[in-house]
Amino acid sequence: MNQAVDLDQLIQRIREEAAGPEFQLARMPAPETGSAGPSTQAGRQAAGAVPGGARASTFDDLLLAETDERFVEQAYRALLLREPDHDGLAAMSKLLRSGRSRSYVLNVMGASTEARQRGAALPGFGLSPQYYRVVRGLGRLRLGPLARGADTLYDAWRKLRTRRRSDRVARLTAAVGFVEQTLQHTNARLGEIDVRVGEIGTRLDATEARIGAISDADLKQRDQIETLRCDASLQRARLNMLHRRLLSPAQVAVPHAAPEPAPAAASAAQLAARIDAYYVAFEEAHRGSEDSVRQRLQPYLGYLAQLPEAITALPVLDLGCGRGEWLRMLSDNDFTAIGIDLNGDMVAHCRARGLDAHRVDALSWLAAQADGSCAAISAFHLVEHLPFEILFPIMEHAARVLAPGGLLILETPNPENVLVGSHTFYHDFSHRNPVTPASLQFLVGYQGLVVIDMPRLNPYPSDHRVAGDTPVADRVNGHFCGPQDYGVIARKAADAPTAEADRLMSAQSPS
User: Fold this and answer.
1) In the prediction, which pLDDT does 226 show?
2) Which of 36, 99, 186, 284 is the most buried (most CB within 10 A)?
3) Which residue has the higher pLDDT, 398 or 53?
C-alpha cells in the first residue's frame, strides 16, 4: 500500500545525511588569541584570516585546487597558517614540476618543523603519512620510478574519491533544493485551494439560506392555496344550499297544505338541515375531492377479491356512505352496493348520481337485516363519531348480517400519528374521540370475526418529514408524519351458509 510522503521529514533526513562525517567539510579551528597566538593584524594575516586568504578545509579539498600555484598557496595557509614566501613557493612548485604529487607535497609540508610548531591540524590526512614514509623509503633505496608511480597512483585515487564525494554532496544539495522548491509550490497551491474552499463554503451557505427562504415562502404559499381552496369549497356549498332552498317545495305556497309542525320541532329540523349543509362543505374542504377519496379507497378493492364466489352476488353495505365514492367504486366493479347515511344532503347527492342510498341510522338498518344477508359491510370514518353504546351493537349486528366468508372493512383516523390524535382529528366537531388500533381490533374479534389485516394508510407527504437517515429522525417521522388512517379487515368464519342466505341467493339467481 502506498503511503503519503512527509516532505518536511524527507528534507530533514537529507540534511542530516549530508551533515554526516563522510560529507561534512570540516573547518580548521580558529587560532587562539592572546599571548600564545597572533593578535595583531599581521598575525591574523599569517593565520590566513585576511580577506581573500581563505584556506581549504580538508586534505582532499587541497588536492582539487585549480592550479599548482593555488594549491601551494592554500597548503601554506592550511598547514603553516601563513601566506607562502617566495622561496617556499618556488621550492614546492619545483617538487610538483619534478613529478611529485600533491599528496607528497602536503606530506612534505606537514612533516616540516614549522608545521609541527604551528600545530595546525588538517582533517583528512588518513594514511598519507604512512604513504609518505613508504615513498621516501623507496627513494632512498634508489627506487625512484617505483616511488613516483606509487605516488601518482595514490594521488589519483585520493582525487577520484574526493570528486565522487563532492558529486554526491552536490546531488544531495540539488535534491534538497528541488524538494524545498516543490514544497513551497505545494504550499502556495494549498493556500489557493484553502481560499477557493472558503469561497465555495460561503456560496454554499448563501445558497442554503436562499433555499430555506424559498422553502418558507413555498410553505406559506401552500397554506394560502389551501385556505383559498377551503374558502372556495365553502362558498360553493353555500351556493348549493341556497339553490336547494330556492327549488324546495317548502318555499312554494301550496293550497290546503298540511298544518305546520310545532315551532320547536321546526327549529330542530331546520338546524339539522343547516348542519347537514355544513358537513357537505366540510367534506369538500377537508376530506378532499371525490376523485382523491376514490384513490385512497382503491386498496380496499383488493380485499373484496378474496370473497368466496358463492356470496359475491349478495349486497355490500356501506355505513355512513357520505358522497358515495365507495358506492361508485363498488358499482363500477359489478357489486350490488347499498349506502346509508343520516345526512340528507349526502343521500341526495348519491341518488342524483344513480346510487342506491338511504337516509337512515346504521343501527336501525342493520337490526332489520336478515342473518348472513351481506357479502361485506364497510364503514369509512364512522366509528369515531359513535358513542360506544351505539358502536357495540352495530358491531354485533354486522357480525350477524355478514354471510360466512364475508368481510367487515373499517377505516378511522390513526391516533398513532401524534398530529392526528392531538390536532387534525378535532377539525370535525362531530368526532367524539380517537379509536386506537388495539381497541378496535379487540372489539371486532370479540364479535367472533377474524382480523386478517390492519393496513396503515395515507402518510403525510415526504416534504413534511424531518431530513436525515438516523434512528431519531425515523422515530420522529413515524410519530408525526406517519399514516393518518388505519384500517381493520375482518372475515366471518366460512361455515355453511344460513337458510336466509340460501333464500336470497336463490331469489337473485336467474330462473
Assistant:
1) 62
2) 284
3) 398
Could you tell me the end-to-end alpha-carbon distance of the chain, in angstroms, rounded to an integer? 88
d(CA 409, CA 306): 13
Take residue 244 and report the three cell numbers written for it.
Answer: 336547494
- Distance set, CA 225 to CA 219, 220, 221, 286, 379 (Å): 10, 9, 6, 13, 31
**Contact by Cβ (8 Å): 468, 281:** no
Strands (E), 381-433: 402-413
pLDDT digits (tens, 9 = 90+) for 228-268: 665 665 566 556 555 555 555 443 333 344 455 566 666 87
Verdict on whether the full-model pTM lies above 0.85: no
Residues 61/24, Cβ–Cβ less than 8 Å: no
3-state secondary structure of 322: coil
**Across residues 140-164, what is the average pLDDT?**
65
Taking the C-alpha atoms of residue 339 and residue 376, their distance in angstroms, rounded to an integer, is 12
Cα–Cα distance for residue pair 54/77, rounded to 1 Å: 8
Q: In the predicted model, what is the mean pLDDT of residues 305-310?
A: 93
CB 377, CB 361: distance < 8 Å: no
SS3 string, 457-474, reads EEECCHHHCCCCCCHHHH
Q: Mean pLDDT over all residues of the chain? A: 76
Q: Which residue has the cell 510522503?
A: 5
More confident residue, 459 or 52: 459
Three-state helix/strand/coil letters over 221-241? HHHHHHHHHHHHHHHHHHHHH
Would you call 468 helix, strand, or coil by DSSP?
Answer: coil
Identify the burial level of 191 via C-beta atoms within 10 angstroms of its C-beta, where 0-12 means exposed, 13-18 middle and 19 or more buried: exposed
Say how far apart CA 358 and CA 337 lie, in whole Å. Answer: 12
Query: Using an 8 Å Cβ cutoff, are 484 and 420 in contact?
Result: yes
Among 283, 358, 305, 297, smallest CA distance to 325 is for: 297
Asked if residues 121 and 29 have their Cβ atoms less than 8 Å apart, the reply is: yes
The three cell numbers locating residue 366:
342493520
Copy the grid coordinates of residue 476: 420522529
Burial pattern 253-277, b for ≥16 Cβ within 10 A else e, equals eeeeeeeeeeeeeeeeeeeebeebb
Beta strands in 288-328 (DSSP E): 316-319
CA distance 210 to 106: 84
- CA–CA gap between residue 495 and residue 373 (Å, rounded): 14
Phi and psi angles of residue 259, each rounded to the nearest 5 degrees, phi first: -60, 140
CB neighbours (10 Å) of residue 109? 22
Q: At what angle do helices 263-282 and 344-352 cross, to 10 degrees?
A: 60
Strand partners, 339: 318, 357
Q: Are 306 and 335 in contact (CB under 8 A)?
A: no
Residue pair 376/451 in contact (Cβ under 8 Å)? The answer is no
Could you give the CA distance from residue 409 to residue 491 in angstroms, rounded to a whole number?
A: 9
